[in-house]
């Protein structure tokens, strides 16, 4: 794509490349949505997309309850996403596991999206669990012709989750629930990784991944409030989350 832009800048005439439609496969909390947002900025920066907007949708944003509702509803979202990325999260929900009746319109929504994927006006990313996404891939014969890039998002191990926690605490936005707080010096990546490994099961980590960190931190702040005396005036103590708080936060999560 970058070379095509260079060719055009040199006055060379080349055919238009197909939009890079993709499928992101993996469990929740593995960063699929975050990567889509970064990709939107990247594709805009290099001139592939006219905007960096990422329109995030799920089944409820696309599928209507009655005959004739799904098409217009889906087309409105497609129009909203033009010039950027349409990110279809939990895309497998468009195709039911079993066809219980004729009143499910998820396939109609998928076909509406497929119909505009060759227009060059939009990049579509389908995201979801790896196994259920096979239903989407096999439901439309044109899917693999249009979606040519498949990316597997692996689960995070305990050390990676500890690194994510540190990164979050070092880059808190003002609207974050943890804004103003910091980690105690005993909360090293090594000690956090050991804590996560000890207090959670592999299944729990796979089911939540990065989401585990968010809940763990919110719970830790709650524990800090419970642990401190209302008379405490030590500003360091009032704003410092300790390993004890994080352990309590994990225990609340896994109860």
From TrEMBL:
InterPro entries: AAA+_ATPase, ATPase_AAA_core, CbxX/CfxQ, CbxX/CfxQ_RuBisCO_ESX, P-loop_NTPase. Pfam families: AAA. It comes from the Eukaryota. GO terms for molecular function: ATP binding; ATP hydrolysis activity. Keywords: ATP-binding, Nucleotide-binding. Transmembrane segments: none annotated. Belongs to the CbxX/CfxQ family. CDD domains: AAA. This is AAA+ ATPase domain-containing protein. Residues 18-148 form the AAA+ ATPase domain.
């Amino acid at each position: 794509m970058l070379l095509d832009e260079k060719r055009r800048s040199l006055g060379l005439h080349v055919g238009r490349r197909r939009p890079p439609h993709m499928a992101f496969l993996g469990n929740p909390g593995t960063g699929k949505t975050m990567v889509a947002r970064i990709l939107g900025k990247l594709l805009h920066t290099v001139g592939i997309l006219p905007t960096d907007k990422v329109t995030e949708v799920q089944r409820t944003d696309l599928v209507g309850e009655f005959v004739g509702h799904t098409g217009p509803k889906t087309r409105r979202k497609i129009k909203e996403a033009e010039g950027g990325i349409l990110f279809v999260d939990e895309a497998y929900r468009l195709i039911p596991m079993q066809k219980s009746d004729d009143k499910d319109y998820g396939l109609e929504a998928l076909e509406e999206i497929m119909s505009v994927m060759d227009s060059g006006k939009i990049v579509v990313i389908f995201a979801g669990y790896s196994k259920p996404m096979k239903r989407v891939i096999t439901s439309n014969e044109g899917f693999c012709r249009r979606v040519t890039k498949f990316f597997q998002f692996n689960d995070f191990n305990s050390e990676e989750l500890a690194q994510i926690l540190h990164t979050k605490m070092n880059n808190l936005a003002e609207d974050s629930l943890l804004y103003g707080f910091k980690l105690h010096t005993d909360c090293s990546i090594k000690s956090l990784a050991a804590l996560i490994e000890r207090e959670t099961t592999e299944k729990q980590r796979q089911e939540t991944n990065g989401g585990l960190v968010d809940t763990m931190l919110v719970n830790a702040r709650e524990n800090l409030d419970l642990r401190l005396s209302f008379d405490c005036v030590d500003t360091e103590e009032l704003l410092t989350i300790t390993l004890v708080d994080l352990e309590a936060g994990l225990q609340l999560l896994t109860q």
